[in-house]
Automatic annotation (TrEMBL):
One Pfam family linked to the record: Lactamase_B
Listed name of the protein: Metallo-beta-lactamase domain-containing protein
Family: Belongs to the metallo-beta-lactamase superfamily.
SMART domains for the chain: Lactamase_B
Keyword Chaperone: no
Organism per entry: Streptomyces varsoviensis
Database matches in PANTHER family: QUORUM-QUENCHING LACTONASE YTNP-RELATED (PTHR42978:SF6), QUORUM-QUENCHING LACTONASE YTNP-RELATED-RELATED (PTHR42978)
Keywords associated with the record: Hydrolase, Metal-binding, Zinc
Length: 288
């Protein structure tokens, strides 16, 4: 399960802010997989045979500027898991995580979302806290072009003050110093990764649900049950894996349980189907 951590990488200070842990039923999350496909992936699974995933947000700080990427799962009881979930575990909720950092959510001015599924917009929703301003009452919301569709759905606002507080940005838009949008559609129509320039020649990609687990790196053809456009999602995964295999490029996978920061080991790249393996960040070998 995930844990709170802070890393300084170049000019950036990154803090993974956990909100919950989730145990998934592997063949339901990845319907193209079979039970026997999971034997090589036991390190990513619980003793009971469920796929471990995390949920949370990434706090990005450069100098005096701060932004949050995604907003966690929000209030959950764990009593009604989806059909592909075994259950939830509160490792530490996001407000508690922020409090442990001495951070007042009311002081945060910018939250950027990879997409607007509930487990990424949780504490930004109108029902997150009393008052309908969300946990972040003064923040502006940034989403990728196409994510809002034709406007607020009939079911109501997905983000607190969605009409007034939300800006949609095109592929390549810089939303803060050294932070730009990278459109990786498929999981949702406007799914967007955020590419962070560390200031020392490296890049970090917060790629949201373009991949849900390291197991998708050797299996980019494994669609996720919630992918909106499965063919487009696979194309985005392959683009992402290729980018992460380059020198100096790291990825942040919000759902990657206790391995959210890492890179694709280019030495494992071979045939079209052998797409490498996830190499988690190791302070002793990767830090500068």
């Amino acid at each position: 399960m995930p844990r709170l951590w802070t890393r300084t990488i170049g000019e950036l200070t990154l803090t993974y802010v956990p909100d919950a842990g989730v145990a998934m039923i592997p063949t339901r999350v990845y319907p193209a997989s079979a039970e026997e496909d999971w034997h090589p992936h036991r390190p990513h699974m619980t003793d009971a045979g469920h796929l471990a995933m995390g949920c949370g947000a990434l706090l990005v700080e450069r100098g005096g500027d701060r932004l949050l990427l995604d907003a966690g799962h929000g209030r959950i009881t764990g009593e009604d898991p989806e059909h592909f979930q075994h259950g939830f575990e509160h490792v530490r909720d996001l407000p508690e995580s922020l409090a442990s950092l001495g951070m007042d959510p009311a002081g945060l001015e910018l939250v950027a979302f990879t997409h607007l599924h509930d487990d990424h917009s949780g504490w930004a929703r109108p029902d997150a806290v009393e008052g309908r301003r969300s946990l972040f009452p003064n923040a502006r919301w940034i989403v990728g072009a196409g994510e809002l569709g034709d406007g607020v759905p009939a079911s109501g606002e997905r983000l607190a003050g969605e009409r007034e507080r939300t800006t949609s940005v095109a592929d390549g838009t810089e939303i803060a110093a050294g932070v730009r949008a990278w459109a990786l559609p498929g999981h949702t129509p406007g799914h967007t990764a955020w590419v962070l320039d560390t200031g020392d020649g490296r890049q970090i990609v917060a790629f949201g649900d373009a991949m849900h687990s390291p197991v998708q790196i050797p299996h980019p053809d494994w669609e996720v049950v919630l992918d909106h456009d499965r063919a487009e999602a696979e194309r985005s995964r392959r683009r992402l894996i290729d980018f992460l295999s380059q020198d100096g490029v790291y990825g942040y996978g919000v759902h990657f349980a206790d391995q959210p920061l890492g890179t694709v080991d280019a030495k494992q790249l071979g045939t079209v189907d052998a797409t490498g393996h996830w190499r988690p960040w190791n302070d002793r070998t990767d830090a500068r």
